[in-house]
Each structure stands twice: as structure tokens, then as C-alpha cells.
Amino acid sequence: FAATEDSASCTSLRATGNPEYPPFLWQVENSSLLHGAVANLMSELSKKIQIPIETVYVGPWSRSQQEVRSGRVDLMAGAFYTSERADYMEYFTPAMMFTKSVVWQSAVSKFDYNSWQDLKGRWGVTVINNSFGQEFDAYAKQNLNLLTVASLEQALSMLGAGRADFVLYEKNPGAAYVQKMGLENVVSAVEPAISSEGLFLTISKESPCNTLELKNKIATALRELVDESVPQDVLVDALTEWREGPSKL
């Protein structure tokens, strides 16, 4: 009842996302906010819709998803499309940005990788509740041995220590963490990418701010931002910010 009443009372929005995702998103030490290209894009979106948007750190990626599912956080600032996620949140189009997911290998146990099939029979690690797009997720479920761990740092440590054959994670965020952990000579990404997916903004179906009026406002503003190439601009700025202050992680 009274969608107008709801949207009138919706005076601010909370967004969250994957905190191990530089240059798209990362947590600055001892801060309750997330930094990065997507957080900067949320600031630009906020100006257009004239409603404050706070991009907050709520815990690891799996926790971020729980918070949005419950409606305690309104927006997911950056998620691949899967039908399972579409059960609890609505997607805005177009995608904010695109990102490649790749296979990370250790120098000590390299193997030839040309297609998904080359991962069969090996032990891989990824971060809990991470998706690589619906097609690869379905293939992995049927065919691959994949352990899930709480954080990217843990996954890369296991790979570096020889406790896994490969790690699956997005290319840019993975490279940022390899550098941060000093693993450049130990761990590397191999081509071809396992998938290339759009990073979407979503709103929780349980959010009290989920009204037609607000969704139309956000959708229009997001389209304008993409048309104005704002996502590329904030990505360039975020790369600079990350390079100048990786110690803040």
C-alpha cells in the first residue's frame, strides 16, 4: 500500500558489495565504508537521484549477500547475474562495468590451461558464494573439485603453499591481492578467461525502499551515468587511489 508513502520515507540508501574487489571495491582498515570505483559510482548516482547512498562494509562477500537478501542493506553495488540471486534481488540494466574471471596458477604446479575441461580432476579454490556467471557455475558444479574459503587472501595463500592446484577469481582484484601479498613470483593468472561478466547494481526485494518510483529513478540515473562514460572515469580514479594506498587494505 502507498508506494508514495514508502518512497517519501526512504530518505537514504545503504549499499554494500564484495570488500575484496579492488579496484571496484575494497575496505580501508578500521573503516565502516567501502572505497573504490563502484563506491565512487554510487556517490555519482546519489547526486542524480538526490538521495544519500552510503556504501558500507558489513563483512565478507557471503555476509554482504545475506545482508542484501534480508533487506537490511538496500543495494548490492556489483553482482554478476545468476537466477538464484535474482530470487532475492532485482537487477538494474545496463551493467555498471565488466570484469573477467580467470584461473590463477602457482609457479610450482603449473599445468596447461586452454579450456574449462583442463580444470577437471584438479583441486581448485574460490571464495564462498562467489559466482563466475551462470554458465560456468553450472559446469563447475557438475565437473570440478572446488573448495570454498572465506576470503581471497586465504585462497591465494593455499595456492602459494601448494595446497591447491588453482584459484578462480576475477582478474583485476586478484592481481591487486597478489601484489599486496607479495606473491608476484609465485602466483599468476592464465588466459583464456573462464568468463567475462557484467557487474550489476541490484536492489533487495526485501528493502523497504523497493518501490516502483525509486527503481525508475535509479534506472534512469544509471543509464545516464553509463551514457556519460562515468563508470570508466571512476575506474581510472580508483586504480590511482588503490596504487597510491594499497597499505590501507
Give me some keywords for this one.
alpha/beta, nine-stranded mixed β-sheet, D-Maltodextrin-Binding Protein, domain 2, 2 domains, three-stranded antiparallel β-sheet, 249 residues, disordered N terminus
Short synopsis of the structure:
The protein contains 9 helices and 12 strands. By secondary structure, the protein is an alpha/beta fold.
Set down the secondary structure blueprint.
Layout: H1 3-9, E1 13-16, E2 20-21, E3 25-27, E4 34-35, H2 37-49, E5 53-55, H3 61-70, E6 75-79, H4 83-86, E7 89-91, E8 97-106, E9 123-127, H5 134-143, E10 145-149, H6 152-160, E11 166-170, H7 171-180, E12 187-204, H8 212-227, H9 230-244
Parallel strand pairs: 1-5, 1-6, 9-10, 9-11
Antiparallel strand pairs: 2-3, 3-4, 6-12, 7-12, 8-11, 8-12
Helix pairs in contact: 2-8, 2-9
Describe the 3D structure.
- 38% of the residues lie in helices and 26% in strands.
- It is of the alpha/beta class and 249 residues long.
- Strands 1, 5, 6, 7, 8, 9, 10, 11 and 12 form a nine-stranded mixed beta sheet that branches. Strands 2-3-4 form a three-stranded antiparallel beta sheet, with helices on both faces.
- α5 links the parallel β9 and β10.
- α2 packs across α8.
- The longest helix has 16 residues.
- The chain is globular.
- The N terminus is likely disordered.
